[in-house]
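*** Residues and shapes ***
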Amino acid sequence: MPTLKYPRAIEPLWHEWDRKALKCGLRHTVYAVNGDQYTGEWLHNLKHGKGTQVWKRTGAIYRGDWKFGKRDGYGSYSIPDPVTKEHKKVYTGWWKNDQKSGYGVRFYPSGEHYEGEWSDGLRSGWGRMYYRNGSIYEGQWLVDQPNGQGMLRLSNENRYEGSWKDGKKHGPGKFFYLEKGQLFEGIWAADIPQCGILIDFGRDEAPAPPPYPIPKIELADPDGVLAEAQAMFDNSNN
């Protein structure tokens, strides 16, 4: 007796069309409804690999690495100059999950630029900022602000070395007045010096030293002052 063979379920044609339309591996150019354009590699219909994205509304261009539809890896982001219409780089460096992350260089419209580490699109880690007024800050950053240990060198070569918090001098630090040949060492709070000492530092080589050197201040009986302070401290604890 012959064996009956039942026909297999017929697969809808749109399944086959989907497989053929699936962008994977090869380079394709795709236009979005809003006019944005992407040319590059794909994986399962997501931008993945090397590719270039052009945003129609702003004219911005990103060239670099993609991972599952987001900028991830090394790439550069540029925008057109409003006058010349030529593209100028805004950021070149590393990305993660569509945000600046890792080492990169950022160029600002004012002419300032930053080179250093980033996290979640913000300056965080070690970095160097070149300001429009000629000042340079080099040191630690946190959430887009100088935070930790760093040095700010002013355009006149005076500089501050020490602690920072929320973009301001905060904690122990030293300020070198090189044109006067003086050094202030003390404690800052929110950019304001609270206490410290001012001494001559390279006075003979300074271009504009004050007319008189800073006199040395010494205690007549330092051991006695120390003993008295220790006694007052001991009494306050009793």
Remarks:
- The two ends are 112 Å apart (CA to CA).
- The CA atoms of residues 143 and 182 lie 33 Å apart.
- DSSP finds two helices and 15 strands in the chain.
- Helices lie at 13-21, 222-237.
